[in-house]
Specification:
This is DUF488 family protein. It comes from Paraburkholderia unamae. The protein has one domain (7-31, 54-119). 39% of the residues lie in helices and 13% in strands. It contains four helices and four strands; from the N terminus they run E-E-E-H-H-H-E-H. The protein has helices at residues 52-60, 65-78, 80-92, 108-119, and strands at 7-11, 22-25, 43-44, 95-99. Helix 2 (65-78) crosses helix 4 (108-119) and helix 3 (80-92) packs across helix 4 (108-119).
């Protein structure tokens, strides 16, 4: 029986998990108002975030959620070196993906979490 990988997502502005989860910031831009010290134990993987062009397009066209997901998945498929370290980390334990978006229902971290869940090799 395979178990689903433990991949959580949360806004970077919320208190970080205190239970030893490895946390990864998955935004292309550093979160506004947060110091590097506050995120000292967080690994920043900006290359796994949507491209600047896609991020800006979705910001202007938030109702295009389905199209955004399709385009972001295409970017992830084209860049396995960006997401593979996260899939490997999830195979070894619980991870948390941190994002800055105000929208907790439609953001790239949701797409990334679901994508990673399909690509984790169970140990």
């Amino acid at each position: 029986m395979t178990t689903k990988p433990a991949i959580d997502i949360q806004r970077v502005y919320e208190p970080l998990p205190a239970d030893g989860h490895h946390c990864y910031l998955v935004d292309r831009l550093w979160p506004r108002g947060l110091s590097k010290e506050k995120l000292a134990n967080v690994e920043w993987l900006k290359e796994v975030a949507p491209s600047t062009e896609l991020r800006q397009w979705f910001h202007r066209e938030p109702e295009q959620w389905t199209e955004f997901k399709k385009r972001y998945l295409a970017e992830l498929n084209a860049n396995p070196d960006a997401w593979r370290p996260l899939a490997e980390a999830a195979a070894n334990g619980h991870i948390t993906l941190l994002y800055g978006s105000h929208d907790t229902e439609r953001n790239h971290a949701i797409v990334l979490r679901d994508y990673l869940a399909k690509h984790v090799k169970h140990k």
